[in-house]
Amino acid sequence: MAKLTDKKGVVLIATYLALSVLLIFVVVFFNVSTVHNLAANFFARRAQAFNLAEAGLDRSIKWFRTSSSPGSCTDPWGGVQSLGSGTYTVTVTDRGSPGGVTTIHRYKVVSTGRVGSITRTLTSYVQTDNYAQYIWFTNSELFQGSNVWFWSQDTLNGPVHTNGNFNIYGTPTFKDTVESVDSYINYYNNGDNENLIQLSNPPYDLPNFQGGATLGANKINMPTQDLNLRAASTDGGLRLQGDTTIVLNSNGTMNVTNSKKGWNNNNMALPGNGALFVDSGKLTISGTLKGRLSVGASQDIIIPSDIKYAKDPRVDSSSTDTLGIVSEQDVMIPSSAHTNIEIDASIMALNTSFYLQDWSTVAAKGNLTVFGGIIQNQRGPVGTFNAATNTKLSGYSKIYTYDTRLLSNPPPFVPTTGDYIVLSWEDQ
Question: What would the pLDDT profile of 170-191 be if each residue is shown by its tens digit?
Answer without folding.
Answer: 899 999 999 999 998 988 876 6
